[in-house]
Structure formats: structure tokens, C-alpha cells
Amino acid sequence: MTSTSLQSPALDNDEYTVGWIAALALETAAAAAMLDVEHEEPQWQHENDHNNYTLGSIGKHNVVIASLPETYGPTAAATAVSQMLSTFKSIRIGLMVGIGGGIPNLKSGHDIRLGDIVVSRPEGTFGGVKQYDLGKTTAGGIFQPQGFLNSPPRVLLNAVNKLKTTHLRRPSAVPEFLREIEKSNPFMFKPKQGGPSYLHQGLENDRLFQPSYEHKEGLKTYNKCDKEQEVKRPPRDNHDPFIHYGTIASGNQVIKDGETRDRLGKECLCFEMEAAGLINDFLCVIIRGICDYADSYKNKRWQNYVAATAAAYAKELLRVTLIQHVKELPKAATVIMNKR
Predict the structure, then answer these.
(1) How many CA atoms lie within 13 A of 14 on its CB side?
(2) Which positions ≥6 away from 251 have C-beta within 8 Å?
């Protein structure tokens, strides 16, 4: 495996076929660290395109990493994609990669932990993403979500399925990629003043509590939490992330309550805030590293590390996605224009 090299000249804009969306700066940094080769700034940018870009390659794929402006959410993501496609007109597939809030459900077999990875994958009537704040209220006052968004392109679904099968025979390359970037980008793994590094944050800092339990605001450790309210989970052998496949809940609000999490997130594995703005037009796979449990203990301790785990999975996914099949797809900008 190769680590990120020094910058090489940017290619012509039409040579880039993969659009990688990162909402936060910490997600963009993790994405850039996963590039096999980083390219210089774009040779040209549309006058109405205000995105910041990091260009590079992973395997045989030329990748555009677009970071969102200071605002985030579905509208910001949709605007960023529209501007990106005005500059990079040959993009065919998309990845939305970053952090998310986990929806653990041990009864249904979803033992999701901090540091784990969730990948959108169609299940039942869902196309991989459910917009939980789009729907109707019935006569009985019950809200029924109706935002079941489109599936990713077949090329990416095939790659996801191939990885899922491969990981039944041998471990994921995610831990290996994390070790590589720790060597090639050591600064990322040094604790920063006022914030965590990209290191794993320790199993002792991953505890799940009953949905009804209210944590005191501002807590940064579990010392003052009621241990009787903790959910008992079987120990894991190591801290390598598990990879979960299924439906992701997307919406325009931050979930910070366990009971609300369980009510809105039925049949889903995690929450995030950008996919609902993208996936009906810009078809992509959503990859989220789990940084909290969308409850009242929500904090930023795990965000950097899980941004890196999600980016590592995205790299592994591109490594098994055939460039030939990507180039055979219609351009994303053309697909969107034909829908309007």
C-alpha cells in the first residue's frame, strides 16, 4: 500500500470522475490524508463556484474532495455539489463521507459502537437513506416519514457488496490505512490544544446509557454518570471498527436525546445532516464514522478519529471500484439536468 505522496500537478478538470463531499474541516483533512497522490489546485474554477477543493488520486480514480462552507446541512450540501459539477463536469459518482450519530439497537442486532462505520445500502423499501423529517402527520397525531431517497448507482453498490463479501474472508484494510496515515501525517495524531487528535479515543470513553437517561450538560467524562443506567454490552477483542450496512437517517436537525433518537431512527443505523440534500440528484454512497450516540452526552471527542475511519473505508471502496465501469456511467451533471 502506498501513502500520500508530495503534490503533483493538477490534471485537466475533465479527468476527475469521483466527487467526494466533506461537510467539516476535520472530515476534509481526513479525506486528503487518504489520497495516494495529492494534486495541486484546480487549473480552472467556474466563476460561480465558491467551494474549496483538494484534488488527488486513489488507485486509478481521480478524486475531487469538496469541502462545504461554514454552514452545513442538506441545502449547503446541495449547493456545494451543484457548484462542484459546474467546474468538474466529468464526475460520475459521489461519496458523502464524514461523521454521524449512532443508533444502537442491541435487540435487533445493531451493536453499534463509537468508532464504527456505517455505510448506506438499500434495504426493503429504503434506498439506503431515509429523510426522517419529511413526511405527514396522521389523524392520530403520529408522524409518518415519507422521504425514502434513491439508491446509489449500481457501480458503487457492486463495490459495497464486494467489500462486504471480502470482509467475510479477511479483515478490512481500514486499520492498515489508519496506520499508514499516522506515519505519513504524524501531525494529525498529536493532541491539539482544546481538541482531540485523530487517534482512537479509548474503549473507556465509549459507554452507552439508557435512552431515557439525561446527562448533565457540559460533561466531558463519565465520572458523574449513573452507572445503573449504563447499557451492558459484550466486550470487543480490539478497537478495530466494525462496519455496518443499512439505512441512514438524514435530516436538518442535530439529535441530542436518546428517546428522540430511537423514535426518529427506527430501522436506521445512524443520523447525519447532508445526504437528504444530495441523493435524489447526485447519486452517491453515504459513509459515516460514529462519533456519538445522538443522546444528551453528545460531544466532539471522537469526531476526528471517526472521520478518519470513514475516509479509510471510502478509500478501500474506491480500490475495488473498477474505473472502466465508472467511466461508462453518464456524467452526473447531465443526469441532474435531464431530471429537471
Answers:
(1) 0
(2) 74, 131, 132, 133, 134, 264, 271, 273, 276
Q: E strand or H helix at 246, and its extent?
A: strand 243-246
Q: What is the CATH number of the domain that holds 308?
A: 3.40.50.1580
For residue 220, is it within any domain? yes
The answer to whether the pTM exceeds 0.90 is yes
Q: Is residue 304 part of a domain?
A: yes
d(CA 95, CA 114): 21
Q: What nine digits make up the cell of 300?
A: 466532539
Q: What does pLDDT average to over the chain?
A: 89
Per DSSP, helices labelled H in 110-248 are: 154-166, 174-184
Residue 157: is its pLDDT beyond 90? yes
The answer to which of 21-25, 219-223, 232-236 has the lowest mean pLDDT is 219-223
Euclidean distance between CA atoms 291 and 271, whole angstroms: 11
Q: Examine residue 5 and state whether it is found in any structural domain, yes or no.
A: no
3-class state of residue 21 by DSSP = strand
Torsion of CA 212, 104, 155, 33, to 10 degrees: 90
Q: What confidence tier does 32 reach under pLDDT thresholds 50, 70, 90?
A: very high
For residues 90 and 85, give the distance between their C-alpha atoms in angstroms, rounded to a whole number. 8
Q: What is the separation, in whole angstroms, between the first and last Cα of the chain?
A: 43
b/e for 282-305, b at 16 or more Cβ within 10 A?
bbbbbbbbbbbbbbbbeeebbbbb
Report the alpha-carbon distance of residue 138 to residue 210 in Å, rounded.
29
Number of domains observed in the structure of the chain: 1
Please check whether residue 4 lies inside any domain of the structure: no
Say yes or no to pLDDT of 191 above 50. yes
Q: What is the signed CA dihedral for 314, 271, 51, 312, rounded to 10 degrees?
A: -20
- For 242, the domain range is 13-339
Res 105: pLDDT: 93
Residues 157, 44: Cα–Cα separation, whole Å:
32
Cα–Cα nearest to 37, from 315, 310, 332, 306: 315
Say which DSSP state 55 is in. E
In three-state secondary structure terms, 90 is: coil
